[in-house]
Write a structure and sequence with these properties.
The chain is α/β, with parallel strands linked by helices. The chain is built from 15 helices and 13 strands. Helix 5 crosses helix 6. The structure holds 4'-deoxy-4'-aminopyridoxal-5'-phosphate. Its EC number is 2.6.1.9.
């Protein structure tokens, strides 16, 4: 029958390593669940801003392709984030796409991507997609960057690409500029400073661009409130970004995203107000979670907190919490350093209260 015939052809033609992969799983969003699993900003826009946005969208026509170079949007970014003319910008459909484009630009079977572990899983996945060599160097037990192990790996593998997420996901800490400089100085290839969570942190790698020829800064609007629009961006030396740009599919940023992002940048103070609120609530939530004596909570410079259950099975806690209407992420089993770890995105004060109440009930039993 047809299904078997399809299977036979898939088996014959799809790369065996692709057949062996598991698709990236994102749980279906259930209504009424408090969603604290994906580092989203929990706040809607104020209603006047929402209305102004809808008004602005009335000027949009969808029959034409978008501006392929996003020239207006680039200008809006330069102004909003004070990006010097010396540097180029490149937009992606989320920074996920930018990781893929960067990797494609250097890919080859003998080429290596290096990153500390645990970190953002997409670095490794994309290396696998492109049949590249991936090397993950474990962080210390306190999640600090093991510089000497990283330097050794640089010497052994001469990586084409190094990803350093600062602050790091899922550990929430920053590695520190001095350590990052040592990695950059030792590397021949390109070092990507992934600043997805920079809005919640005092760290800022922008000044590294002035000092080094092998650095690019990657950021995203996903965590500050525009996750649904999908917009990530690279800031870097034109020489690097012009090459990466050749691999970008035309029109990767659609008209609605271009217009909506440009609109949001005119109201960037509103987004900053929300991120400041999230940072304050993160500290409150950290304090309250730390009060549970069977939970360890790490400090965080991101919009989430990493915790470890000391007496309970974290995966089970995650399941039971979902049954009580709160979705968080269990990292148990994803890396040896993350045994019984849970990652909780900071929600609104009301959402955080529900989380604390339900978690208290579960941890007490
Ligand atoms: N980098 C890091 C460190 C992340 O945690 C994430 C999202 N989880 C991303 C990049 C990708 O974000 P997006 O594709 O939404 O821009």
């Amino acid at each position: 029958n047809r299904k078997q015939a399809v299977s036979a052809r898939v088996e014959r033609w799809v790369r065996t390593d692709v057949q062996a992969l598991k698709a990236y799983h994102v749980p279906a969003i259930e209504e009424h669940v408090i969603k604290l699993d994906a580092m989203e900003n929990p706040y809607h826009w104020p209603s006047a801003m929402q209305q102004a946005w809808l008004d602005a969208l009335q000027q949009i026509h969808v029959n034409r392709y978008p501006d392929a170079d996003c020239s207006q949007l680039k200008q809006a970014f330069r102004e909003a984030f004070h990006i010097a003319e010396d540097y180029e910008l490149l937009f992606g459909n989320g920074s996920d796409e930018l990781i893929q484009l960067l990797a494609m630009a250097v890919a080859g079977p003998k080429r290596t991507i290096l990153a500390p572990e645990p970190s953002f899983v997409m670095y490794k996945m994309i290396a696998q997609f492109l049949q590249m060599n991936y090397v993950g160097i474990p962080l210390g037990t306190d999640f600090s960057l093991d510089v000497s192990a990283m330097l050794k790996a640089i010497e052994t593998h001469n990586p084409a690409l190094i990803f350093l997420a600062q602050p790091n996901n899922p550990t929430g800490n920053v590695f520190g500029e001095e350590k990052i400089r040592r990695i950059i100085e030792a590397a021949s290839g390109l070092v990507v400073i992934d600043e997805a969570y920079t809005a919640f942190s005092s760290s800022d790698g922008y000044s590294l661009l002035a000092d080094y020829s092998n650095v690019v800064i990657m950021r995203t609007l996903s965590k500050v409130g525009l996750a649904g629009l999908r917009l990530g961006y690279l800031i870097g030396h034109p020489g690097w970004l012009e090459e990466v740009n050749k691999l970008r599919l035309p029109y990767n940023i659609n008209v609605l995203t271009q217009a909506s992002t440009a609109f949001a940048l005119q109201h960037v103070d509103e987004l900053f107000k929300q991120t400041a609120q999230i940072c304050a609530d993160r500290e409150l939530l950290k304090e309250r979670l730390s009060a549970f004596d069977n939970l360890h909570v790490w400090p965080s410079e991101a919009n989430f907190l990493l915790c470890r259950t000391l007496e309970h099975d974290a995966a089970e806690i995650q399941r039971l919490l979902l049954a009580r209407g709160v979705l968080i992420k269990s990292l148990h089993g994803s890396h040896p350093l993350l045994n019984n770890c849970l990652r909780i995105t900071v929600g609104t004060p009301e959402e955080n209260e529900v989380l604390l109440r339900e978690l208290a009930a579960l941890l007490a039993s």
